[in-house]
Amino acid sequence: MKRFLSATESTAAFFLLLIALLTAGNVVLRDLLSIQIPDWFDGTKQLQGIALFWGIALATWRGSHICVDIVWEHLRPPGRRLMDIVATTIALAFLAPMAWMIWVKVGSTGGQTTSDLRLPLTWFYAVGAVGATVAAILAAARLLALARRRPPEDDEHLASELRASASGTEAGHGS
Length: 175
Description:
Radius of gyration: 20 Å
InterPro entries: DctQ, TRAP_DctQ
Shape: elongated
Largest sheet: none
Protein name: TRAP transporter small permease protein
Organism: Zeimonas arvi
Number of strands: 0
Function: Part of the tripartite ATP-independent periplasmic (TRAP) transport system.
Number of domains: 1
Keywords: Cell inner membrane, Cell membrane, Membrane, Transmembrane, Transmembrane helix, Transport
Number of helices: 6
Helix content: over 70%
């Protein structure tokens, strides 16, 4: 699971990097040479969609959505676990059909292309659909982990934190 999560994180980061490079490159070329990168705007929109789907996958697994935990903070561990299970079930109920519908969109894209380079939009939609599918899979995996009373965290990271707290040092840092 650690490799899968690492690959998911790297994929999201890679597409964010592409967005930054494409945008910065276009600004530099436009200001210095008065030219633009073809399809830079369409490209950044498509890449942003891809990065968002892959990022949703990570946020779903980690349960680290942007939220206010007013109720959760005041619950005991069994109540927190129940709330996490309900929230993850709702997330899965939305993510699974969304992934399916994105694959339907991939199939119905036909010959649509970007405006300048005529790159097929199917490529972008397919990579986004894989990210949406990974999000649904990770939601299901998180739900199973919560149902088994195991926190869906990196066991190695958790073990190092426990060792560090037992020895009185901060996780990841030696004395």
